Amino acid sequence: MKAIIQPTKKYYRILYIDTHHIRITGMLDLVDTPKGIRPVKYRIRHSKSGGYRNTPSKDLITHLRRSRVYLTAKNKPFESFLHDLQIQFSYVSLCRFCLMDDRVTELDKKNTVGFGDGEQICMDCARKELRRELVHMGRLGRSALSHLDELLEKYRSVDRVLATIEPDRLTVGHTLYDRLEAHPVLQTAGIEELPFPHEFVEACGVESLMPVQQLAVEAGLLYGKDLLVVSATASGKTFIGEMAGLKNFLEKRGRVLFLVPLVALAYQKYERFSQKYGHLAEVSIITGASRIQVRDSRRPANRSRNAGILVATYEGIDHLMRMGETLPNIGTVIIDEVQMLEDRDRGHRVDGLIARLKFSSSKAQFLYLSATIGHPKLLAGKLDCRLVRYDDRPVSLERYLIFSEREQKIPTERAMVAEEYNRVSSKGYHGQTIIFTNSRARCHIIAEKIGDGVAPYHAGLTQAERRQVEEKFEKGQLRAVVTTAALAAGVDFPASQVIFDSLAMGIEWLTVQEFYQMSGRAGRPDFHDLGKVIILAEPGGCYIRGSRLTEEEVAMGLLKGEMGEVAPQYNLEQSSELYVANAVICKGNENSIEKIEGYLVGEYEPVEDLLLDKNLITRENGVIHLTSLAKVMAEHFIGVERLSRITRLVNEMKDPLDILADLECASDEEAAREKVRKENKKDEKTKKKKKRRGRRTK
Known about the structure:
Blueprint: E1 2-7, E2 12-18, E3 21-33, E4 36-46, E5 53-54, H1 57-65, E6 68-71, H2 76-84, E7 89-91, H3 96-100, E8 112-115, E9 119-122, H4 123-133, H5 142-155, H6 158-162, E10 176-180, H7 198-204, H8 211-218, E11 227-231, H9 237-250, E12 255-260, H10 263-277, E13 283-286, E14 309-313, H11 314-322, E15 330-335, H12 347-360, E16 365-370, H13 376-383, E17 386-390, E18 396-403, H14 406-422, E19 433-436, H15 440-450, E20 454-457, H16 463-474, E21 480-483, E22 497-500, E23 504-505, E24 508-509, H17 512-519, E25 530-537, H18 551-560, H19 572-585, H20 590-598, H21 608-613, E26 617-620, E27 623-626, H22 628-635, H23 640-652, H24 656-665, H25 668-693
Parallel strand pairs: 1-6, 6-7, 11-16, 11-17, 12-14, 12-15, 13-14, 15-16, 18-25, 19-21, 19-22, 20-21, 22-25
Antiparallel strand pairs: 1-2, 2-3, 3-4, 4-5, 8-9, 10-18, 23-24, 26-27
Helix pairs in contact: 5-18, 11-12, 12-19, 12-20, 19-22, 23-24
C-alpha cells in the first residue's frame, strides 16, 4: 500500500492507495510538543462514501509503517515527524486537481502541463480547465477545440493557450500557428549575360535575376514560350512580363498588353512603366469608361490605344473588344493575378477575355502570373502553356490565430498596429499593417477607433482619396490601412503585417485561394525582415446567411486548407454573356465562335438554341447575327436572364431610378424566385375566387 501525504494550508491530507484505487482518505494536524512533532485530530473515511470519523493517532503510525510513504511537496514538520518515527519517505509529483477529486495521477514528462504560477497538473485536468475558461467564449467548433488541444500538447501551458483567447493576457508570440520559412537566394544570371537589347538593360534597373525569373528564362521566356508563373508575392513576377514584353517590342515583334484586375493597380503599373520605359516606348492606360461622370473620376494619363505598352484592366480591354474594336500588332499579353479565373462574379469574364485575345492575337506570347493557384500543373495544361513554379518565399511568414470576441477585436488591432509600426526593419522601414474586414462601413469604424495614422481604403472612395492613401502608405506616413477585398488582388502596398478582422468578405466566407492571396500581402524583401498574418476569429460568430460554419471553424479550414483545381462551371447567365461577346469579336462566324470556346478554361452551358428561341440572334449561312438587344448584352456584360428582367422592369416601371433600385436590391436569381412566388400566390387567389362563386346562399 502507498501513503501519499499532501500538505495544505490548514491540514495534511493522506491518501492510502491499494494498486490504483484510493482505499482510505485521512486528515490530520501536527503540533510541536516537548517530545517532538506529534499528530492530532486524525480522521479517516473509507472510500468516497460516508463521513470522516475520529481515529487514534497510533492507527496513523501503524498505517504509515505498513505503507510506502510519499510527500507531494517538501514540508519540514511532516518530514521531522517521519524522521522521529524512522519511517522512510520520498517525494512524488502528483496532479493537485486529481487529488481534490480523490484521484491520483503521477506527473511525468509526457503528461505534465503548466498551470498558474509554477504549478504542474496533468493533461486531462488541463483540458478540463481550458474548457471551463472557454465557457464565456460561446460555442466553439470541434476544429477550434482540436486546435487548442494541439496548442496544449505543443506548449504544455494552460496560460499560454489561454493567451490566444483572452485579450488581457495576450502575448502574440503565444498565438503563433505556424511559420513559413524563407529560403536563401539561389545563384542567378546577371541581366547583362542574357540576350536583351542594350537599351532595356540600361533602363530596367536590375543587375541579376531573382530565382523565379531565372526559372522563367530557363523555361523559354526569351524565346516566345507561353508560361504560367506561380510564385509568392514580391518574388519578381512582374519583371518576368517586363523582360518578355520589352524584348519583343524592341525587337519589332509587337506591342505589350499588361492586364490587371483593378483600376488602382493599373495606375500603379502605368506610373512605374512610364518612369522606367517611357523613353523607350509610349506607355498608356485603358481602364474603361465610367458610367457616372464626376469630377476627378479619372486621373490625368495617356489613354492612347496605339501605345507600345498598354496597361489595362480586364474590363477596360474587354469592353473595347465587345464594342467590335480590335487591338492590332500585340506581341506580348501579360495577365496578372490570373487566379481571378476563380472569382465568383468575374471569373467567366476573365476566361472569355483570355480566349478572345488568343483568337485575335494568335501570334502573341502569353504570360499568366499568380501568387496563388491550386493545382497549377492542371491549369497550365488547360491554358496550353509551360508551368514555372517557385514555392519558396523571399521573406519568412508567421501566421497567428487569436480567438477574439467581436468587441475585443478593435482594441487588439490597435495594440498590434502600434507594436508593428514601432518595429523598424534592418532596411530602415517601419512595420505597416493592412487590416481586412467585411464591409466599407466597418473600414471607417476601425480606422476611426484605432486613431491617427490609420485610413480606410475601398472602392467607395474617390480617385483622389484613394490616391492620397496610396501615396501616404508608400511613404510610410500611415501605420495601417483598413480595407475590404480590394487590396487582395495585388495593389502594391509595402505592408509587413496583415490582420483579418473578419473572414467574411461581403456575404461570403473567404475561400482558401482568397485567403492565401490576401496573406501574401505581408512581407516585402526590399522593406521587411519578416511578414506576419494575424487572424482574429470570433468563436461562434457567423455573418453569412444560411451558413452553418462559424468564424473560428472557417479560420481552421483556411489555415489547414488546400486550394482546389481551377475548374469553373458557368451557369446560363454567364454562358450567354460569353457567347454574345465571342460572337462580336469574330463577327459571328460559327467556326470561329467554336474555336474561341475551345480556348476556355471553364465549362459553359450550350445557349445558342435558347438565344435563337428568344429572337436575340439569327443564323444565316454559318454566320450568327446579333440583334440590337444581343449587342446590348455584349457591350454591358449581361446575360440572357438579366436582360429578360430588365425588359420586364422597363415594361412595368416608368421611373429609371425605380428600375435601378429593383436591379440593385435583389440578385437575378432572387428576383426570379420572387416572380414565381407572386405568380403562384396569384393562382391560389384565383382558385379561391372560383370556389366562392360556386357557394350557395340562403
